[in-house]
Amino acid sequence: ATGGGRMRYGHFEMVRLGIGRKLDVNRMFALWRIDAPWQPVTKKGQGQRMGGGKGAIDHYVTPIKAGRVIVEIGGNCEFSEVKPMLEMVAHKLPFKAEVVSQEIMEKKAEKELREERDNLNPYTFKYVVQNNMGGCQNWISPYDRKWFGKHQ
C-alpha cells in the first residue's frame, strides 16, 4: 500500500478470488499480511434526525497504513509471472497500491537512507517537530508527532 485506507470484507474477497483464480497451487502459495476486518464502522439510518446517540454497527473494516504489505506470494515462482496478477488486484483496492518484490523494497529503503544522509538542510521535519519550532506541537497531529510525516 502506498496510501492509507480501509479494506472491507468485499475487498478481501476480491483479492482472494483474483489471486486464487490465477495462482498455480502446485508451485505457489499466498500469505495474508493483514488481519481480517475487526474495526466496527457505525452508521445511522437514512432520514433520521440528529441526536439520539451513536448509530448501530454497519460493517467492519481493517485500517491499512501506507507502506504496508497486503499479500505476499511465495513458492517456486518468478516475480515476472506473479506481477500481472498482483497488478490487477492492486488497481481494484480502495487505496493506492503497487506491486513490489524484495529487491524493489531494498532499493527503496537504500534510496531513502541515501537521501536522508545526503540532505544538506539541517531543518528536517523531524528536527522541526522535536524542537517545537514555530510552535508546531500545537497544530500538528499526534500521528505526525510519532512518525514525522513518513506514513500518511
Automatic annotation (TrEMBL):
Alphabetical UniProt keywords: Ribonucleoprotein, Ribosomal protein
Protein name, per record: Large ribosomal subunit protein uL16m
UniProt xrefs under CDD domains: Ribosomal_L16_L10e (cd01433)
Lineage of producing organism: Eukaryota, Metazoa, Ecdysozoa, Arthropoda, Hexapoda
PANTHER family: 50S/60S RIBOSOMAL PROTEIN L16, LARGE RIBOSOMAL SUBUNIT PROTEIN UL16M
Family: Belongs to the universal ribosomal protein uL16 family.
